Each structure stands twice: as structure tokens, then as C-alpha cells.
Amino acid sequence: MTNSRIPGNYFAPRTYVKSEAATGLLSTRQGNRLLAVPETLLRSIHIALRKETGQAAPLALYTFGFWWGGSFYDRLRSEVESYYNTTIPQMNAVEFLAMMREIWAVHGLGSLTLDFSYKNQGFIKVTTENSALRLGTELGVAEGELPSYHLEAGFIAAWFSRWAGKNLRACATDLTINSGTKVEANPKHNNFLVGLAPQIEQAELWVKQGLSCSQILEKFATGDS
To answer: What percent of the chain has pLDDT over 70?
Structure first.
């Protein structure tokens, strides 16, 4: 006897998210409780950490995001492996990355695009669009400073660290300095680079110097440090 069942899309919104009309509670198809995080709370995270930690706010946000992303991966891993009857390392990479996009969408993390064409430079380029994690990034940013996307960067870094089994880091690129008006890196999407710590630290320095994502990748490609 062999199992010939072809699993469907586990994270299809109609089947993955269950609601209880009587209580207003949300849960996954396996019965795990889901929490709807209000926009006010996401914005408040940035305001509170900036006020409490000052210049250490980027590190605090990144650490919080990394913890959050790691817990998120660990929780979903058991569900995914149970449903598909295989471990994530044994899954076809293309199928797993397609599933990642479904995971991001159904959990309100926006649209996800992954670009592995820079793997020879040691990077994965991650683009998110309309992510809830970007809410509040512009709050409390002083004039002349860059907006902080460290919460989302930490979240992404933790996910890829768990998946690759390596300690990876991430940083946002293509940021716009606060000129005293509205601060926003891009009205539609954010670009992140994921890689080993030494490379990401160098990339962060170039981001502060105003280099774009494509310029940073070109520097790594030509060995210009």
C-alpha cells in the first residue's frame, strides 16, 4: 500500500483560517489559536521601543523580530511536516519556497518575492509588498535619520536561519532619509538582503551611505569593500 494522496495548498485562506462566530476567535485548520494583531499595536511597538531604548532601538527591534520570526517558523514547521508527511529539509525547494509565499500572504505579511540570483555573492534578495510588519517604521524617526525596518529584517533573518540551519542576518535596503516630511522607503515594497553577518554588516554601512540595493550587490560582485 502506498500513499498516493497529493496534498493541496495547506495555507489556502478558506481552509487554513477558521472562525468561530459565537466567540469571534480565529484558529488554524489544526485548531491552533490565531491572534489578529491590531495596527495600533504594531505601530506602538516602534514608538515604545524608541522611547525606552533610544539609540539602541534598531537592535531591540531586530532582536524582537528575530525572536518572533523564529517562533513563527518553529510553530509552522510541525504543521507543515505533519500535513505533507515529510520534513522541511526533505521537501522540494521550489515547492517549499512557493509555500513560503502562501504563508506570508495568509498571515498578513504581504506578498513575498525571493531572488536567488545573487547566491554567488552570498545573498538572498527578499522583497515584501504591503507587509503588516512595516507599520510604524516611520514613527519617531528624527530628521536626517533612516527609517527603521529592523523588526521585519529580524523576522526574515530568523526564518531563513531556521530553514538553512545557519546563523543568518538581514538588512533593509533602498531607504530614504527623513527630510522632515513623510518618511517611507517605498510606498509599495521593501527590499532586504539575507546573508552571513560580516557581509550584512558591510551592506548596512553602504545603506547608511545612501547606496541602493543594486549598487550594494554590484560592489560585492566586484569585490569592492
So the answer is: 84
